[in-house]
Structures are given as structure tokens and as C-alpha cells.
Amino acid sequence: MDIILVPGFWLDASSWEAVTPALEAAGHRTHPLTLPGKESADADRAGISLQDHIDAVVAVLDAMPGKAVLVGHSGGGAIIHGVADARPDRVQRAIYVDSGPLGEGGVINDELPAEGDDVPLPPWESFDDADLVDLDDGLRQAFRARAVPEPRGVAYGRQHLQDERRYGVPVTVITCEFPSTMLREWIAAGNPFVAELARIRDVELVDLPTGHWPQFTKPDQLGRAILGAVDRTGTE
Known about the structure:
Layout: E1 2-6, H1 20-25, E2 29-32, H2 50-62, E3 68-73, H3 76-86, E4 91-97, E5 118-119, H4 137-146, E6 150-151, H5 152-156, E7 171-175, H6 180-188, H7 195-198, E8 203-207, H8 214-217, H9 219-233
Parallel strand pairs: 1-2, 1-3, 3-4, 4-7, 7-8
Antiparallel strand pairs: 5-6
């Protein structure tokens, strides 16, 4: 199975490097992506939109012979949901890592401070304690050293969806900062935050207790969780 790995904010393809070995050892083909404007700290991010990132992933998917599994971490969840909307017949499963699908008209995070076309990684004090669980000083230093500003148009841009067949794409949500029981409670209560997820017909929830960056804090466990979801989906 081809597995496309979409990083979250401030990260590139290398952020998956501790996760992919388990997937490849199981015989899968991994495709960790570096999205437009995130090639380096000096890259030009002017005019890059959320749709541009979605289109970049669609182009990778279109180049493959069959279906693929999409994995999106954090803000990458909005991107893979846009891909599932654009190519619902090409996505075998969408796996959201401490993330979820972003509905029509939603934005990923337009409260992050921007500097021109860039949204730099904020100071750690800006994050909730739950985000930073298990992210020790060494991991924080390594993260900040590799961090690339996010394009402002991706963080602030609105999601646009058009094909309701996306609700038929099977979904796995790997919950890290909060337990899956809380997510179920939000769905049952009709919380707007999970309105798009609630409309998906086949959803499984997998608990992986840690902070917001399990690819750094618990990469082996994350690899196994992704592998389990892929194996339950079947292969082509």
C-alpha cells in the first residue's frame, strides 16, 4: 500500500523519519511530503494557500497507480480531508494524527501570529500544557532547529469542499492530547468542532496518549498505530 504522510505546521518530510521504518518493514511504500513553501526557512511563501497544499498532495496521489492511505498530522488533517474531497475514489483510508477533518469554510488557525507571509513557530509558552507532554528539552531544541515557517495563506485560508462522497472514505483518528472518550462525547453533544467528523460514516478512534507531536515523542507507537489502521483497511 502507498502511504502519503502529510506533516503538520512548521514541519517537512523529515519529521516522519522515525515513523516510516515500521511501515516500510511491513512492506508498505511511504511518501513523506514537503509541501510548497516549506522547502527551507528562506523559501518564498507569498501567495501559497491551503488549496495549494491540497493540490500538491492530489498531484502525488494522481501519479500513483491505485488507491493510497493518507496520513495527516495536526494542520495536515485539513489538507488530507481536502484531498479526500477532491479524490474520494482514490483514498483507501484517511488517518488523522491528533487532528481531524476541517469542514467547508473552516480555517486551520488564523490566530497564530504572522510575520508578513510567514507564520513562525511560536515560543513554547504559547502552547497549552497538553501540547507539550513528553516533548522534553532535547526534543524541543531539535524541533525548533528544524522548524520552517508555515505559509500564512495555509494557516488563515478557508477550506472549500464540494463532493459529499468524502464522507464514505474510512477514517482513523489517533487521539493524543485527549482521550477518544472525550471525542466521542463531543460528537454525541453535536459540538461544532467535530461536525465534519460526525458526518463520516466509518470512523475508528485510537488512543495514543502523549502531546501534540507523537512523531517525536512516541514515534514507534505512532508507527504501530498507523500500521494497524492500514492493515485493518486492506491493501491493493
